[in-house]
């Protein structure tokens, strides 16, 4: 039987203020009573007073130590010019740090395969896969759907999110596809880096969405279009579009904007959606014998289960009071039992985070450590770092 726990929590407000002067100093503040790291500060050209200048000539320096930080430039609108500068500060509890915008040759890391990486994978039908230094994911495209519809072996019909259980901090996507497609090996076998033994099927996997009508959940099919926005040392992001789909006579449009930052076990999803005022985000319950934990006020859900010769935690974090309820939906239909969080759609959009922690990766030793991580992640998501530009 699934065990259920309900925890009370507290929502905290977020602040973001900006002012600009000739000398650009960035003050980042942590108002929580916990250390903050592996969180990304995103600065636009306009915020930095660089409206008519190239952002590529600038870097970020620690005001006190003079150390240059790793940064990443992002062309968010695809016009060939970078619009944003990313960096990840480290702040002690209840503290602030100053950083300085400086002219610099420091730039986005030019590794052939950056830490935060994603790509379309046409050689394996038409997956889209993404990863960072802790986790990896994939989902499935239109050719994989067509193969199922035409009874061609090797297809996949699912808009669920697959988890690739890596246990190394370097990129594995290209290596694992090469291993599966070009050698006698398989990414379904763990030879030291991890493996793909997470079953998705028609389930929601780790963060797929659905629309509930009466007692039935309706889901989209495979993505139809993709666009990579950025890869680099700090973030990868991309867009997946879906054909309109039917929820008991109601037409739903869905477009996923997904990003994954260095050091995070959870991908960020911003879903543009029309046709419903509530969207449900799911975690597959697999054998339905794991442990469910829900924290409605802080906005998170977790499922911890035995998995192969190890254990696995999956989780969803929903900030900003968007979580309005949840359901352990259990059915005998194959791959259809999911833990669902119900999100209120605001301005045709929802935002949430979804991901996993694998015990064998040695990132988490038990369910308690996983729940501590999810709870801390939710605290930070509900209380972002404060950024002031002087």
Automatic annotation (TrEMBL):
Statement: the UniProt record of this protein carries the keyword Signal: yes
Superkingdom assignment: Bacteria
InterPro entries, alphabetized: DUF4861
Residues in the signal sequence: 1-21
Alphabetical list of Pfam families matching this protein: DUF4861 (PF16153)
Keywords: Signal
Protein name in UniProt: DUF4861 domain-containing protein
Organism: Zhouia amylolytica AD3
